[in-house]
Amino acid sequence: MFTKILIANRGEIAVRVARSCRKLGIESVAVHSAADAGSMHTRVADNAIDLGDGPASSNYLNIPKIIAAAIESGAQAIHPGYGFLSENPEFADAVAEAGLVFIGPSAHAMTTMGGKVAARDVAVRVEVPLAPGTGAIASSAAVEAFGAEHGYPVLVKASAGGGGRGMRRIDSEPQAKDAFDAAVREATAAFGNGEVYLERYLTRARHVEVQVFADTHGNVVYVGDRDCSVQRRHQKLVEESPAPGLSDELRRSMGDAAVRLAREVDYVGAGTVEFLVEDEKFFFLEMNTRIQVEHPVTEMVHGVDLIAEQIRVAAGEKLSILGNLAPKGAAIEARINAEDVAEGLFLPAPGPVDLITAPEGEGLRFDAGYESGDTVLPLYDSLIGKLIAYGPDRETAIKRLLDGLDRLQIEGVPTTVPAAQTIVSHPDFRELRFSTLWLEETVDFSEAEPTDRANVEVGGRFYIIPTFSDYGTAGGYGGYGAAAPAAAADPASDPVAATGRIRQARAKRETVSDGSVKAPMQGTIIKVNVEAGQQVTKGDVMFVLEAMKMENPIPAPVSGVVGDFTVVTGDSMAAGTLLTKVTVEVAA
């Protein structure tokens, strides 16, 4: 067994890995950017190494720096967590070449299953069902041809990544070119690889994933399944295990298919095989060659520590969980992000977290990456933590989660707590009437009370600091572990200096837009759809802003005439920057 492990990540997952290391009697080493010097994961780990200033590409994504830190610390292995370098085969190879152990699959397995096109080829080889799709495509003409043959909607997807980045739904042929171009742009920005492919979009499907685990002794098993259908913009908000309402035969067939896929690529460690399920049919979607954000629900119903099991397997031990493959009870997880749902926009809302108090009670667990007094930085993802509830049955788990959400206290930033409450208490959710489209098509968050926000200037840059509302907010935005956008602030500066800390004021008020169109977050304008003097309708997409490797549409707040503006494609800007103003025309 290892005596020291370096954790190449930050936030909630780095804290989680450090705690599992301590349980195993293993010393942990955290790495951090200059901006993250005081973050919770550096306090929980036994040691911490500063990887320096700059955006994530200069530290958390810098392979030579991380390898050097591991060697300097005396660590024998590196745990990559999720996001960042966790699915980067070059990193896995570099770790091995340095004489260290990568706690994850081989670079070969990662390359094969991490590339969506190659993974589809493996699925064909081992006879795992696939929805109609293509290999890599080179133009929007391929989209049009595929749509003509298979019908719409069609999904264009990045081959190299996940988290909704590089993914676009196309409902008709006229949308093909813009959607294809946007997907390639976003995939290139997020993963350095613009390759995309197509899949027929299933409009009534649920998203069900199977946890697989393999060791170096020939054991490959599946450890139950999870339902992750509750998504917004392809980002999961609520997950549960086991996936409810599936027949035993369907469950076994999916599990067996996942094991065949893992065996075919000599997989080692923890992985997740994702499927779309429609009626009694399932279709392979993709494989995530890492631990998942939602792994705690599997841990709760199987009574296992999947992180500890990753470490044991990487150390050459046999699987210890072979006696825990049948689920007992049910668990549901709600992701708690620092996000603002005002006007239904679900925007990241960084700022100081004045207070976090986790609820205590039977079956409740809170995995957090922040404590009271910490700051959610605008440089990284907005995940504060995950609240998980367990019960002997699904209804008990739901009741416990709702009770826990009601008692979870987070002050200083708006969070997704009210969104989770709305989702989990919804009759459709409780009665299994949902699909991957259910949240966006059925659940309306636009009625949520707008969150007051103040723009705080630090070092010449503006940061949106939301105030806390009695009603709260909801969300479910961006991908975890994303690198800082090009326009990110200097991470050496504390976005909310001690002198600039905003004491949150509880307020409830009705907001009427004055027509101002502002950048909702730091980022780069990559598309301008309007001109001065143009008539627009409320909701029309006026600009597209790239931030956190995601493309964010900026809609017209009211119907009217577009005023003057100076922004052009390629401009980078701070949150709150005025782009233009829409003037409402008053009838004479």
In short:
By secondary structure, the chain is α+β, with helices and mostly antiparallel strands. The protein is built from 15 helices and 32 strands.
How much strand content do the residues show? 25-35%
Q: What structural category do the secondary elements indicate?
A: alpha+beta
Q: In total, how many beta strands?
A: 32
General form: globular
Radius of gyration: 23 Å
Question: Largest beta sheet: what is the strand line-up?
Answer: 13-12-9-10-11-14-21-19
The parts where pLDDT drops under 50 for at least 5 residues are 449-488, 490-511
- Measured as a percent range, the helix fraction is 25-40%
Average of per-residue pLDDT values: 86
N-to-C span? 80 Å
Helix segment tally: 15
Please summarize the sheet with the most strands: 8 strands, antiparallel
Features:
single chain, 588 residues, 8-stranded antiparallel β-sheet, 5-stranded parallel β-sheet, 15 helices, 25% helix, globular
Account of the 3D structure:
By secondary structure, the chain is of the alpha+beta class. Helix content is 25%, strand content 28%. The protein contains 15 helices and 32 strands. The strands form nine sheets. An eight-stranded antiparallel sheet has the order 13-12-9-10-11-14-21-19, sandwiched between helices. Strands 3-2-1-4-5 form a five-stranded parallel sheet, with helices on both faces. A hairpin with a 2-residue loop joins β23 and β24 (461-466). α5 (107-114) crosses α6, α7 (140-150) packs across α8 (176-191) and α12 (394-407) packs antiparallel against α13 (417-425). The longest helix is centred in the middle third of the chain and has 17 residues, at 248-264.
